[in-house]
Amino acid sequence: MVLIAKQIRDSIEERHTRHERDTLLPFDLPSVVRKKVSVAFDGGLLSSDAGVLLLRGVEKKLGLAARLASCIREWRKPEAIVHPLEEMLRLRMFAIAAGYEDGDDCDSLRHDPIFKMAVGHAPESGDPLCSQPTMSRLENAPSKIEIARLMAAMVDQFCDSYRRAPSSITLDIDDTFDAVHGHQQLSLFNAHYDERCFLPIHIYEAASGKPVP
User: Fold this and answer.
1) What is residue 167's predicted lDDT score, i.e. its pLDDT?
2) pLDDT at position 111, please?
3) Taking the CB of the first residue and of the last residue of the chain, which one, N or C, has fewer CB atoms within 10 A?
4) What's this model's pTM, rounded to 2 decimal places?
5) In terms of DSSP bridges, do strands 188-190 and 195-198 run parallel, antiparallel, or are they unpaired?
6) Which are the contacts of 125, defined by CB distance < 8 A and separation ≥ 6?
7) For residue 23, is pLDDT > 70?
8) What are the contacts of 38-45 at 24+ separation with CB within 8 A?
9) Within 10 A of 173 (CB to CB), how many other CB atoms are there?
10) DSSP label at residue 79
11) Pairing verdict, β 171-175 and 178-179
12) For residue 197, what pLDDT is reported?
C-alpha cells in the first residue's frame, strides 16, 4: 500500500511539473474531458490552410500550372527572374481555391508555411513566395492571343480528363450572384438583382459534374 501511494504521489507531482513546464500562465487551467489544457506562445510555424496540400497533389497529377505557364511568353530578363511563371500560377490557383481571391493576399501568403510547401518551397528555410506587385504584373502580362491560348489549354485539360471521347456531352450553365459594395473594377449593375455585382458564369458537364473551363 505504501509503495502504491508513493507511485500515485510521484505521478501527480510529475504531471504538475509537466503542466508548469508548458503553461506560461500564472495559474492552472481546468482540464477538459480529463485532458490537460496548456497555453504556450512557441507553437512555431502555423497555418490554417492545411487543405491546400491536398490541392497540391491534384495539381501535380494534372500538371495544370505547367500547361498554363507554357501559354505565356516570358517577358522578364532571365537573370532577373526570382519566381518562375509556373510557381506564380500555382500560388494564385491555390490562393483562390482557399478563398484568397484578392492579389493583395499574396503579401501575407508568401510567408505561409503551407502555401510555401504547396508551391514547392521548404516551409521555414525556403524563400518567400511572390508578393502582390509581382503577381499583379503577371495578371496584366498576357496578351489577347495568350489569353486565347490559356482558354484553349483549359479546354484541352477538360478533354484530356476523358479516357475516350464521349459521343456527346450536356452542359449545365448557371450564374452566381456576388454583390459588391462600391464601384469595384469590372462590376456592373444587374437589373434582375437590382444592385451592382459580379456575375460569374459556371459551366459543368451534367453527367459527371466536371467543371468546364
Assistant:
1) 87
2) 93
3) N
4) 0.71
5) antiparallel
6) none
7) no
8) 45/113, 45/123, 45/124
9) 10
10) G
11) unpaired
12) 92
